[in-house]
């Protein structure tokens, strides 16, 4: 049996291909967002993104989903120049140990499908003004604090 929140997630996945979870910044850390359902509907890892304004984060993740639907694969290594205006983004694989803390509903969805332990996720990283990513030496400390590295 599913509750109202879980049913909305399932309905959105059927209707749109994924459901977007938004977590606002609080005393425990920066805000973040991730989709649920891209693995099921698009055969692509889910995406998690931290630290940007919520509306921008939602726009970027939804755009990623549309591009994946059109055949793009963000699991490939390299920089992606067209997700944020004037900045490249890169993706890293999210290690299993971070999934329960940050991707709870995505894990629930995989269990709901009978696919426990099969969640794959990528973290979308964005750089500081000098083009350094938070997993690189010399990145602006404020940018590092906004993007915990999940590898």
What does the secondary structure layout of this molecule look like, with pairings?
Layout: H1 4-16, E1 19-23, E2 32-36, H2 38-42, E3 46-50, H3 54-69, E4 79-84, E5 87-93, H4 99-102, H5 104-112, E6 121-125, H6 141-146
Parallel strand pairs: 3-6
Antiparallel strand pairs: 1-2, 2-3, 4-5, 5-6
The total number of structural domains is 1
Q: Uncertain runs with pLDDT below 50, 5 residues or more?
A: none
Average residue-wise pLDDT: 95
Strand content: 15-25%
List the secondary-structure elements in sequence, H or E: HEEHEHEEHHEH
Q: Return the structural class.
A: alpha+beta
Number of strands: 6
Rg calculated over all Cα atoms: 15 Å
Question: How many strands, what sense, and barrel or not for the largest sheet?
Answer: 6 strands, mixed
Strand order of the largest sheet: 1-2-3-6-5-4
Distance between the termini: 34 Å
| Count of discrete alpha- or pi-helical segments spanning 4 or more residues | 6
Give the overall silhouette: globular
Give the helix level as a range of percent.
25-40%
Describe the 3D structure.
The chain has a six-stranded mixed beta sheet, with helices on both faces. The longest helix is centred in the middle third of the chain and has 16 residues. The model has no long low-confidence stretch (mean pLDDT 95). It is an alpha+beta fold. It has one domain. It is globular and about 50 Å long. The protein is built from six helices and six strands, in the order H-E-E-H-E-H-E-E-H-H-E-H.
Would you kindly provide a brief summary of this structure?
The chain has 151 residues and is an alpha+beta fold. It has helices at residues 4-16, 38-42, 54-69, 99-102, 104-112, 141-146; strands spanning 19-23, 32-36, 46-50, 79-84, 87-93, 121-125. It has a 6-stranded mixed beta sheet, sandwiched between helices.
